[in-house]
Specification:
The chain is mainly beta. 10% of the residues lie in helices and 44% in strands. It contains 2 helices and 11 strands; from the N terminus they run H-E-E-E-E-E-E-E-E-E-E-H-E. Strands 1, 2, 3, 4, 5, 6, 7, 8, 9, 10 and 11 form an 11-stranded antiparallel beta sheet that branches. A hairpin with an 8-residue loop joins strand 6 and strand 7. The longest helix has 16 residues. The N terminus is likely disordered.
Length: 237
């Protein structure tokens, strides 16, 4: 409790130092196109048939639309993921080789527990969702930071230095419905590192101190309860 109060007081001092009051700060918004209805996005972000690799047989390709809730720890930041993240991609084979095409990621701002800050997960430019015995998939993310006095563009992780997740299965896949096919499963990663903030201007060092960044592997974690809806590209041409 003392730590949470101290964190709030520190962040309030940061906001005052920036001469931006909480009552006049701009509200936090999701990334353009993310909207508040990540749960309802469904297959609308599936890559188009024209975006599949040359030589791809649509009947052998499918779109996967995932939504997930859970919990995230980044340094000192505790972030309940109560509003679902949505990730959409296509996968299949070309000449026997597994291939993927990323579609989109949608998320709304998530409040950092005990602070006036929110973070918005964003796609960091790399994904690999081919499962094997070692992991369920890999994903690069950045986390946009918004709140009183925080400048636009402030984030944990950047395009040059994203947060790299290697997600391991915690709950095996279970069929929820057959038509459409929906599968649920659990994943987690507690071995990733988080870099210093970037794009935060003079507030960067203060945010790093308050949030304990950079944060080494073993301190941070993400656990997700996910659902994936699957749809074949066959018949869509």
């Amino acid at each position: 409790m003392f730590r949470a109060r101290r964190l709030v007081m520190t962040l309030s001092a940061v906001a005052l130092a920036a001469s931006v009051g909480a009552t006049t700060a701009a509200p936090a918004h999701a990334d353009p196109g993310s909207g508040t209805g990540a749960r309802e996005r469904g297959f609308q972000d599936c890559p188009a048939l024209s975006e599949l690799p040359e030589g791809a047989d649509p009947s052998q390709w499918r779109c996967e639309a995932m939504t997930a809730v859970g919990h995230l720890t980044l340094g000192r930041a505790e972030v309940p993921i109560e509003r679902p993240l949505a990730i959409t991609f296509a996968e299949g084979r070309v000449d026997g080789e597994f291939r993927q095409v990323f579609g989109a990621m949608a998320a709304t701002p998530l409040r950092v527990r005990g602070t006036p800050l929110s973070i918005t997960p964003r796609y960091g430019g790399y994904s690999d969702f081919e499962s094997n015995d070692e992991r369920r998939g890999e994903l690069d993310l950045t986390f946009r930071i918004t709140g009183p006095g925080v400048p636009p563009g402030c984030s944990m992780g950047s395009e040059a230095d994203p947060v790299h997740l290697v997600l391991k299965e915690t709950d095996p896949p279970e069929v929820v419905t057959q038509d459409p096919l929906v599968v649920s499963f659990g994943v987690e990663d507690n071995r990733f590192a988080v870099p210093r903030t970037s794009g935060c201007g003079p507030l960067g060092p203060l945010l790093d101190k308050v949030l304990r960044l950079p944060s080494p592997a073993g301190v941070n974690s993400i656990d997700l309860d996910a659902r994936v809806a699957l749809r074949s590209y066959g018949g869509l041409g």
